C-alpha cells in the first residue's frame, strides 16, 4: 500500500494529532461539549511577503460536508493579511475537534504555494506565461494540491497530467533531456537532430513544437540543430541551464536570422527574484522548486468564543469576528460580529450551513484570471517583492464600529 491517507481516513478524522483524540475522551468523560467559535489566521507571513493567497478552502469544505457546523470563509484564491481570520467555524466542539490538523494541513501548504506563485506572477508581469513544473519535487500525495495552488496564485498551467485533468485544464510541457539521450548510441552519441525530428513526427498534433536545447551543446548550437530538424514547424525552445538571460538573447537573435520567430521558455532554479531579472528576456517560464518548496503559511486554529462567551488564549483577541475590506485603499477592518460597519465589504462569506455546502466552487481558470487582475491593481507598496510595507489590518472594537456607522 502507498503511505498516503484515503478519503475515508480524512473524513473519519484519522489524520489527526493524539492530543485531539485524548481531548475528545476527556470532554466526553466530563460531559462537556461546548458550542465554540474557532478562527483560522496567521500571526505573520514569510519574509518579505506583504500578503498571502489563501488556498485549500475547497478541500476544507469537502471535509466539513455532513458535519453539523457553520463555516464562513474568504473566497478560494483571496488575498489575506496577517492577524485576520480567513476561516471561521461554529459548532459543537466534539463534532469537529479532530479535524483541526487536517484543516490546517489543507490550508498551510496550499496557501504557501499560492502565495509564492502570486509573487512570481508579480515578478514577470501580467502577460508572460508561467508554468508549474514541480511535480517531481513533491510527494504525489501533495503534488496535486500544490499545482492547483500555483494556478490559483496566477500561473498559466501545470505539467502534472492528473492535476490538469481534475482541474479541467490542458497539461503543458516540452521534452525532457531523457528523450534526446534515448536517441544516443555508441556510433552516434550526439543525435539531437533525430530526436527533434521524431518529436515533431510522433508527438500529438496539438502539442506545441517546443524543443529543449541544452542536452549536449550550447543552447545556441542546439537551437540551430532544432531549426534544421523542424524548420517552420519549430514554435518554441526551452533553455534549462547556463546564463539564462544571455543564452535566451543569443538564441532569439540566431533564430530570427533564419526567419524564425519562436517563443522562448526558461527554466531551472527560478524564483521570484530570478524571474524579476529574466522577465524581459523570455516569453515563458517553467518553475518547480520555488512552488513545491514554498514556505508554508503558519496558520493556527484558535477558539475565540465558548457557549456565546468571548474568550481566547493569551495573545489572541476574543469573540467572533468579521473582516471588512476596503479594496480602494486595500485596508482590512476586523470587528466583532454583529457590529454595524459600512466601509468595504465583508469577505468572510457563508461556506457551510449545518453541514451543507452553500457556496459553489469556482473553476481554477476563473480564480487564476481574477488573481492576475487583482495583483496588478494592488498598491505599489504591496507589490514590492523586496520590502515589507506597513500592516494593512485595522482592529475596531465594538463601540468604535458603532460610532463609525453612526457618522456615516
Explain what you see.
The strands form four sheets. The protein has a seven-stranded antiparallel β-sheet with strand order 13-12-1-5-3-17-18. Strands 7-6-11-10-9-8 form a six-stranded parallel β-sheet. It folds into two domains: 7-113 and 295-407, nicotinate phosphoribosyltransferase, CATH 3.20.140.10; 125-292, Alpha-Beta Barrel (TIM Barrel), CATH 3.20.20.70. It is built from 16 helices and 19 strands. The protein starts with 6 loop residues before the first helix and ends with a helix. The longest helix has 25 residues, at 100-124. The model is unreliable at 400-408 (pLDDT under 50). The protein has helices spanning 7-11, 18-30, 57-64, 93-96, 100-124, 140-152, 161-167, 177-181, 192-202, 219-230, 244-257, 272-278, 289-292, 364-375, 380-383, 398-407, and strands spanning 35-42, 52-53, 69-73, 79-80, 87-92, 129-132, 157-158, 210-212, 236-239, 263-267, 284-287, 299-306, 309-310, 321-326, 331-336, 345-346, 349-353, 356-357, 393-395. It is an alpha/beta fold and 408 residues long.
Amino acid at each position: 500500500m502507498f503511505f498516503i491517507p484515503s478519503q475515508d481516513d480524512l473524513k473519519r478524522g484519522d489524520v489527526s494529532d493524539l492530543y485531539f483524540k485524548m481531548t475528545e475522551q476527556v470532554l466526553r468523560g466530563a460531559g462537556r461539549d461546548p458550542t465554540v467559535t474557532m478562527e483560522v489566521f496567521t500571526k505573520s507571513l514569510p519574509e518579505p511577503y506583504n500578503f498571502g493567497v489563501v488556498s485549500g478552502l475547497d478541500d476544507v469544505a469537502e471535509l466539513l460536508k455532513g458535519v453539523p457546523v457553520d463555516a464562513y470563509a474568504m473566497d478560494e484564491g483571496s488575498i489575506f493579511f496577517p492577524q485576520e481570520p480567513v476561516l471561521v467555524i461554529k459548532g459543537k466542539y466534539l463534532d469537529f475537534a479532530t479535524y483541526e490538523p487536517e484543516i490546517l494541513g489543507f490550508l498551510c501548504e496550499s496557501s504557501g504555494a499560492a502565495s509564492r506563485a502570486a509573487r512570481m506572477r508579480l515578478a514577470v508581469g501580467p502577460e508572460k506565461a508561467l508554468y508549474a513544473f514541480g511535480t517531481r519535487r513533491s510527494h504525489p500525495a501533495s503534488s496535486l494540491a500544490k499545482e492547483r495552488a500555483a494556478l490559483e496564485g496566477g500561473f498559466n498551467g501545470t505539467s502534472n497530467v492528473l492535476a490538469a485533468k481534475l482541474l479541467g485544464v490542458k497539461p503543458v510541457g516540452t521534452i525532457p533531456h531523457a528523450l534526446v539521450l534515448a536517441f544516443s548510441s555508441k556510433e552516434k552519441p550526439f543525435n539531437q537532430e533525430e530526436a527533434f525530428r521524431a518529436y515533431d513526427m510522433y508527438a500529438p498534433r496539438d502539442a506545441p513544437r517546443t524543443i529543449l536545447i541544452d542536452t549536449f551543446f550550447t543552447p545556441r548550437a542546439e537551437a540551430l540543430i532544432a531549426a534544421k530538424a523542424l524548420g517552420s514547424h519549430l514554435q518554441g525552445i526551452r533553455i534549462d541551464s547556463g546564463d539564462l538571460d544571455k543564452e535566451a538573447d543569443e538564441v532569439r537573435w540566431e533564430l530570427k536570422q533564419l526567419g524564425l520567430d519562436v517563443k522562448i521558455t526558461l527554466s531551472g532554479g527560478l524564483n521570484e527574484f530570478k524571474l524579476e531579472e529574466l522577465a524581459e528576456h523570455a516569453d515563458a517560464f517553467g518553475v518547480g522548486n520555488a512552488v513545491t518548496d514554498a514556505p508554508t503559511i503558519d496558520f493556527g486554529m484558535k477558539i475565540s468564543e465558548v457557549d456565546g462567551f468571548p474568550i481566547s488564549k493569551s495573545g489572541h483577541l476574543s469573540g467572533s469576528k468579521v473582516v471588512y475590506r476596503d479594496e480602494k485603499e486595500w485596508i482590512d477592518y476586523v470587528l466583532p460580529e454583529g457590529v454595524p460597519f459600512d466601509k468595504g465589504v465583508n469577505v468572510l462569506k457563508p461556506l457551510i450551513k449545518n453541514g451543507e455546502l452553500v457556496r459553489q466552487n469556482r473553476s481554477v481558470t476563473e480564480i487564476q484570471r481574477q488573481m492576475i487582475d487583482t495583483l496588478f491593481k494592488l498598491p505599489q507598496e504591496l507589490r514590492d517583492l523586496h520590502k515589507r510595507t506597513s500592516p494593512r489590518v485595522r482592529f475596531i472594537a465594538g463601540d468604535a464600529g458603532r460610532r463609525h456607522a453612526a457618522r456615516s
